[in-house]
Design a protein that fits this description.
Number of domains: 1
Radius of gyration: 12 Å
Shape: globular
CATH class: Mainly Beta
CATH topology: Pectate Lyase C-like
Strand content: 5-15%
CATH architecture: 3 Solenoid
Structural class: little secondary structure
Number of strands: 3
CATH superfamily: E3 ubiquitin-protein ligase SopA
């Protein structure tokens, strides 16, 4: 699988990949990344920095987001069924319309 991550300007990060299913992105710096509609089912995102990332309509079913920082992330319409969000930072994250069925939100930090 080819994954291209490129910076456009100082703060804009675009990830291009057909699928990031089950990808190991532990501790990845994905601040402000445009991941709209990304297929991240089962991905390892433990302790990833996803502050202000656009994850609108992303498929994160079964993803491991333990301790991930999702401050200000756009998760509208995202599929988070069965995702591990334990200790995730969700301050200011927009979860409107997202599917959290079976997600583990134990100790998730929410404002």
């Amino acid at each position: 699988m080819e994954i291209r991550i490129k910076r456009i300007g100082r703060n804009d990060l675009v990830v291009e990949a057909p699928s990031l299913r089950e990808a190991n992105l532990r501790k990845a710096d994905l601040r402000e990344a445009d991941l709209r509609g990304a297929k991240l089912r089962g991905a390892e995102l433990e302790a990833a920095d996803l502050r202000w990332a656009n994850l609108r309509w992303a498929d994160l079913e079964g993803a491991d987001l333990y301790g991930a920082d999702l401050e200000g992330a756009d998760l509208r319409g995202a599929i988070l069924r069965g995702a591990n969000l334990r200790w995730a930072g969700l301050e200011g994250a927009d979860l409107e319309g997202s599917d959290l069925e079976g997600a583990d939100l134990t100790r998730a930090i929410r404002d």
